[in-house]
Design brief:
Layout lengths: L2 E10 L18 E9 L4 E6 L3 H9 L15 H5 L7 H11 L7 H22 L3 H5 L6 E9 L4 H13 L4 E5 L7 H15 L4 E5 L8 H11 L6 E3 L7 H10 L3 E4 L5 H10 L5 E2 L3 H4 L1 H14 L3 E2 L7 H13 L6 E4 L4 H4 L8 E2 L2 E3 L12 H7 L3
Parallel strand pairs: 4-5, 4-11, 5-6, 6-7, 7-8, 8-9, 9-10
Antiparallel strand pairs: 1-2, 2-3, 4-13, 12-13
Helix pairs in contact: 1-4, 3-4, 6-7, 8-9, 10-12
Length: 384
């Protein structure tokens, strides 16, 4: 079996990403990339990618740079894979990484590699007729508790109403993030307090402070301590993703778990985040960190360091399904992130959207990712 085609489709939804004013939901991604890898046997693998999809498409479609053997370093990713055996995921990951190293290593190049890697694992699962978690090494659970992932509302009243809606939907944990948080410290405290009041003591509250707000480590410590009375399970994204020393300073100064990692990439990046950054929770996004090939290494690394792993998975049901497989592979798992956005690129990419039951999402049991992509939705929203 050989790879016959590697495609990246640029999708656009009907509306622009927005912040909710009340209990309504944000629309979800405005643009999204979808990778499809096809083999000469007819098997196809898929992955979404939440990045600047038009730039990622250039990384995939770029031509081969040189005919000289051993000179792959400026090559388009598709040119590195056509004719290769898709089952050799580890070798192909490194082939893509080395082949794009002079324009890549991080950013959109590693994100394109990540999505292709997920698609290759999807093909592996379909070839062996096994779900991806079995190929990773097995599963520790059949279901994972889901937390509703949404944005901060602008007032305490809107926070209470939104939290009540999620409780009525069956969520036992909610994460509020970004939005207005960070503009007014006193309002920040009131918003978190309102969320805790509405959720009650028996449900978990997670807080994403949004690193777009510039903070020093001491200011970040003050933010965490100001909301600690409301018992957040974790607080994430307090500082710039590269401020490893700052993260260690914060993590050592507070009792609350500090989380980071959705922008981090490669096993080397996560090693630094754990050892130098000292965070309590790492949050690899499989479409950014390097795919399953790197995700499995991150799990092993985090378990050796006794850190929690809670994957970032906001974009669509495709990524949520992938994250469920990785979370099933964890010895200890707390949550899977479940985006509450209802836009077409969030909920409609798979023919049977993921459904929460009693606060949990089932780990897919079908071959590969275990979800069937709706190619009609891709064609409807495709712009490139």
């Amino acid at each position: 079996m050989k790879i016959s085609n590697v495609e990246l489709f640029v999708l656009q939804s009907e509306g622009l990403y927005n912040n909710p004013e009340g209990s309504e939901e944000p629309l979800g991604p405005t643009y999204m990339g979808i990778v499809r890898v096809t083999t000469d046997s007819g098997l196809r693998g898929y992955s979404d990618m939440e990045t600047c999809a038009s730039v990622a498409k250039a990384c995939v479609d770029a031509p081969k740079w040189s005919q000289a053997e051993g000179m792959e370093c400026f090559d388009g990713l598709a040119s590195l894979l056509i004719g290769e055996n898709p089952l050799e995921v580890e070798r192909l990951w490194y082939r893509m990484y080395r082949g794009s190293i002079y324009y890549g290593r991080r950013g959109v190049a590693i994100q394109a590699i990540s999505a292709i890697d997920i698609a290759l694992w999807d093909i592996c699962g379909k070839f062996y007729n096994q779900p991806i978690h079995m190929l990773l090494g097995g599963k520790w659970r059949d279901k994972v508790r889901a937390y509703a992932s949404t944005l901060f509302r602008p007032t305490p009243e809107a926070m209470r109403e939104a939290a009540r809606v999620y409780v009525e939907q069956g969520f036992t944990a909610v994460k509020f993030g970004w939005g207005v948080f960070g503009k007014d410290r006193r309002l920040d405290v009131k918003l978190v307090e309102a969320a805790r009041e509405a959720l009650g003591d028996e449900r978990d509250l997670l807080v994403d402070t949004g690193w777009f707000v510039e903070r020093t480590p001491k200011e970040a410590i003050q933010v965490v301590k100001s909301i600690e009375p409301f018992r957040p399970f974790l607080v994430e994204e307090l500082l710039n993703p590269e401020d490893y020393d700052g993260y260690r300073q914060v993590a050592n100064a507070v009792d609350t778990r500090i989380a980071c990692g959705e922008q981090e990439a490669t096993e080397w990046g996560f090693e630094r985040l754990i050892t130098q950054g000292g965070v309590d929770v790492v949050q690899p996004d499989l479409t950014r960190c390097g795919g399953f090939t790197v995700g499995r290494k991150i799990v092993h690394m985090a378990e050796r360091a006794n850190r929690l792993v809670i994957p970032h998975s906001w974009s669509s049901d495709l990524l949520t399904a992938a994250s469920l497989h990785l979370t099933a592979f964890l010895r200890r798992a707390e949550f899977v992130e479940f985006s509450t956005s209802q836009g077409p690129l969030s909920r409609m990419l798979v023919k049977e959207p993921l459904r929460m039951v009693d606060g949990y999402l089932r780990v897919p049991e079908g071959p590969g990712l275990g979800v069937e992509v709706d190619d009609g939705v891709i064609e409807k929203h495709r712009i490139g």
